[in-house]
Amino acid sequence: MSSPVASASWCTTGASWPRRTTDGSSAVTAPSESLRTHSAAEPTAAAVDVLVTRLDDDVPLPSYAHPGDAGADLVTTHAVTIAPGERALVGTGIAIALPAGYAAFVHPRSGLAHRLGVSIVNTPGTVDAGYRGEIKVLLVNHDLREPAVFERGDRIAQLVIQRVERATFHEVTQLPGSARSDGGYGSTGR
Ligand SMILES: O=c1ccn([C@H]2C[C@H](O)[C@@H](COP(=O)(O)OP(=O)(O)OP(=O)(O)O)O2)c(=O)[nH]1
């Protein structure tokens, strides 16, 4: 049986890491400095097809800034100023149809969090495969002093498309035991 490591398509900034040995096993060693530099030959996984409509003709389609990025950027269709501690529901001008078995998740952008203290209230927002309305983003300004100012077209979130499982729930009187049992909320210490 081939190892999952050997068969996976790896996203790296170098040609191939973990490095493969000639017998197909993986040699997990740190990439050399030269391999850490950007390569045009970055491997990318096959893309899933997602249908998109623009509810606003001028907005760009969701797009990935770099090969291997998990999130495609979404923009706001309106200028908005969010006062300290306040929130605002903003439109992206985009509606999508996902294949069955997929969902899209609206994630914050780390740059906005770092620069402005802006995140998303319900992070990550869940876009169901059957949802055909405009994708909206519930931004929150966590900064205590400065308003967060966005112009139309500013990137405000990123959309991560993922496969999701649908569960069948089976009621039982007792759950099987586990090492963690009911420990949580810091049960393993600081
Ligand atoms: O950040 C988000 C989250 C959700 N949605 C859309 C897509 C999603 O399919 C729909 C419903 O979202 P959710 O299930 O989170 O909402 P709910 O509060 O449970 O409402 P509902 O009763 O409509 O399911 O709203 C967005 O556009 N952006």
TrEMBL record:
The gene is dut. InterPro entries: dUTPase (IPR008181), dUTPase-like (IPR029054), dUTPase-like_sf (IPR036157), dUTPase_trimeric (IPR033704). One of its GO terms (biological process) is dUTP catabolic process. It catalyses: dUTP + H2O = dUMP + diphosphate + H(+). Substrate binds at R109, S110, G111, N122, T126, V127, D128. This enzyme is involved in nucleotide metabolism: it produces dUMP, the immediate precursor of thymidine nucleotides and it decreases the intracellular concentration of dUTP so that uracil cannot be incorporated into DNA. One of its GO terms (molecular function) is magnesium ion binding. This is Deoxyuridine 5'-triphosphate nucleotidohydrolase. Transmembrane segments: none annotated. NCBIfam families: dut, PRK00601.1. Pfam families: dUTPase. Keywords: Hydrolase, Magnesium, Metal-binding, Nucleotide metabolism.
